[in-house]
Design goal:
Blueprint: H1 2-13, E1 40-44, H2 49-60, E2 65-69, H3 75-83, E3 95-98, E4 101-104, H4 108-118
Parallel strand pairs: 1-2
Antiparallel strand pairs: 1-3, 3-4
């Protein structure tokens, strides 16, 4: 993925607009609920079984989450998420934005670990 980022930066230098280079993950809205709880953002297409399974698992675990349809969100937001995918990651869905990281088709336990790190300690 880092070579993809390099190519996209080169295109940007050539004056070709490349969505996502200017937006950081922290600028993506809806990472917290209206009452300030951390929220998991799940990116994927509609009618995608792995994405549907992830959403169902989050609902079952009562983890606040929001589905972000990759076919209808802004290119800048989607570009920022895609550019943040770890290099050598498999090209799978869903992409999950949590705790400032993008995880590729993570397990529920991976999501829970990241989510719990976001919760304030008492």
């Amino acid at each position: 993925m880092s070579s993809t980022r390099g190519r996209m930066q080169l295109l940007s230098l050539l004056g070709i607009e490349v969505p996502g280079l200017e937006m950081s993950l922290s600028e993506i809205p809806n990472q917290y609920t209206s009452d300030g709880k951390p929220q998991v953002l799940v990116y994927g297409p509609t009618n995608c079984n792995p994405t549907a399974q992830t959403l169902a698992a989050l609902a079952q675990q009562n983890i606040p989450h929001s589905f972000r349809n990759s076919n209808s969100i802004g290119q800048e937001e989607l570009g920022a998420v895609i550019l943040s995918v770890p290099k050598n990651a498999p090209g799978e869905t869903p992409l999950v934005l949590i705790n400032g990281r993008v995880l590729v088709n993570p397990s529920v336990s991976e999501i829970l670990t990241e989510y719990n790190q976001m919760l304030p300690t008492t």
